């Protein structure tokens, strides 16, 4: 195509030279019989587009591990008691304060009743000692009793007060133990596991179940250092599990340090 164009130009130039030679060699040239038509310029179509900002979406892919955001282990706080009721199953939703299990409280109830009776007796003894001390003080004023006797009555009051306090403290301790036989959910969540079996004898610390707070899971992914600049807290995230199910989430935190060997950082 380029050769044809050059050839055409060469022919036109040669024709022009001949015309000039004819004109100068023969005097005035004969007028051309016909005026050549003007060459039409090529038309270039131009379109104008307004400059505007366009958001460009980018993504960072990484693999990670799923774990409970906050998971509490619910255990027995009393030893040697039988687990009478387990009121939840794995996967159940619970609210804070819901009763999830009960221990046998019959023995503690009997002990508490006995201790409350001891409190009542101690209070009665104290009231009697207070009355005796008051009478002794009146008699002491008229020298009807000795100072030693009045002092003994005052000491009896102090002893009675101590006995009442001791009995009340024992009753409060038994009441607290009784309260712990009713096991409640510490927060809203989902029961993630339940090894507890009704009828078994448990010890303090025996795991009865686990509850995930608000049913919320957390994914920790390892991201290359070069991709960290593209990630910020609050960004949306899509998590796909091994079965292909997708879950929506958001970035909650980014590790401040990068592993010196792998050059990876954990993003949650």
UniProtKB/TrEMBL annotation:
<comment type="similarity">
    <text>Belongs to the membrane fusion protein (MFP) (TC 8.A.1) family.</text>
</comment>
<dbReference type="GO" id="GO:0015562">
    <property type="term" value="F:efflux transmembrane transporter activity"/>
</dbReference>
<dbReference type="InterPro" id="IPR058625">
    <property type="entry name" value="MdtA-like_BSH"/>
</dbReference>
<dbReference type="GO" id="GO:1990281">
    <property type="term" value="C:efflux pump complex"/>
</dbReference>
<protein>
    <submittedName>
        <fullName>RND family efflux transporter MFP subunit</fullName>
    </submittedName>
</protein>
<dbReference type="InterPro" id="IPR006143">
    <property type="entry name" value="RND_pump_MFP"/>
</dbReference>
<keyword id="KW-0175">Coiled coil</keyword>
<feature type="domain" description="Multidrug resistance protein MdtA-like barrel-sandwich hybrid">
    <location>
        <begin position="72"/>
        <end position="210"/>
    </location>
</feature>
<dbReference type="Pfam" id="PF25917">
    <property type="entry name" value="BSH_RND"/>
</dbReference>
<feature type="coiled-coil region">
    <location>
        <begin position="157"/>
        <end position="184"/>
    </location>
</feature>
């Amino acid at each position: 195509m380029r050769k044809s164009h050059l050839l055409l130009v060469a022919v036109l130039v040669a024709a022009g030279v001949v015309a000039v030679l004819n004109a100068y060699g023969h005097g005035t040239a004969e007028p051309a019989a016909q005026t050549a038509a003007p060459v039409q310029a090529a038309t270039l179509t131009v379109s104008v587009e307004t400059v505007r900002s366009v958001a460009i979406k980018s993504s960072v892919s990484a693999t990670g591990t799923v774990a409970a955001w906050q998971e509490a282990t619910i255990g027995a706080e009393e030893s040697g008691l039988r687990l009478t009721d387990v009121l939840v199953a794995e996967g159940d939703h619970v609210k804070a304060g819901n009763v999830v299990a009960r221990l046998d409280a019959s023995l503690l109830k009997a002990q508490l009743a006995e201790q409350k009776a001891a409190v009542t007796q101690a209070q009665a003894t104290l009231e009697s000692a207070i009355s005796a001390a008051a009478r002794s003080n009146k008699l002491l004023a008229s020298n009807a009793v000795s100072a030693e006797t009045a002092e003994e009555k005052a000491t009896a009051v102090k002893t009675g007060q101590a006995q009442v306090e001791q009995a009340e403290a024992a009753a409060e301790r038994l009441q607290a133990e009784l309260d712990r036989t009713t096991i409640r959910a510490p927060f809203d969540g989902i029961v993630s596991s339940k090894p507890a079996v009704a009828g078994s004898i448990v010890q303090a610390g025996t795991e009865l179940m686990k509850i995930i707070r608000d049913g919320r899971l957390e994914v920790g992914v390892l991201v290359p250092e070069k991709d960290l600049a593209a990630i910020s807290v609050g960004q949306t995230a899509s998590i796909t599990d091994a079965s292909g199910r997708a879950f929506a989430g958001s970035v909650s935190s980014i590790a401040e340090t990068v592993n010196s060997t792998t050059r990876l950082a954990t993003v949650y």
